Amino acid sequence: MAADLVRHRVSVIAAGSTSAALAAKVATATIPIVFESGGDPVQGLVASLNRPGDNVTGVSSMNAELPSKQLGLLHELLPQAMRFAVLVNPNYSYSESAVTDLRVAAGAIGRQIEVLSVSTNRDIDTVFASLAQKQSDALLVSTDTLFINRYVQLVTLATRHAVPAIYPWREIVEIGGLMSYGSNVADLFRQTGIYIGRILKGEKPADLPILRATKFELVINLQAAKTLGIDVPPTLLARADEVIE
To answer: Where do the domains of the chain lie?
Structure first.
């Protein structure tokens, strides 16, 4: 798809994920690329945050840097939980660093982390079915396009298997997920659009520093909590940016 865009001689390529941005970068060294990425863009996309260089710039959601914060929120919600699982796609370039951070964060509160690796929707079904056997008390879903495209499947399985879960995206909580903490996606794409506009007016990607997310949202679905038999602590509700009744 990236190569096809290059053949059409488009003016700018907008890439909505890390994998899309990497594909676009391989396809062209001249057409400007503006990305929205979940991880550290210095790892493979740009030379530095302040001076990205070449033909690539964009916005980092920083969601790949948030797992330890998400684990803390799950721990606050379920203080008696001892074993947490994290759903990761091993093909995602930032999975390893996220798991490392989670292990450190879990150790600091005396908890354990079980890493569940999946790369297809069938793997997701299998992993959820094994959670009870693994005696995992709660689940953290990491940021990855594989999971973004499977909102309904994740919510359905979490409900069916009665698994408390936290996600990086508010959209999954809006359709029945329990809790999310992550950057404001609408704001990220607005910033991406602003950069595209500036490039179309003549500015160069190399001169546009990488933007980092500044708006983060905690969203809690009380109906999902009730279904799972969870009483959400008032302190957590007070900090939520939105509580879905």
So the answer is: 2-62+184-215, 64-183+217-244
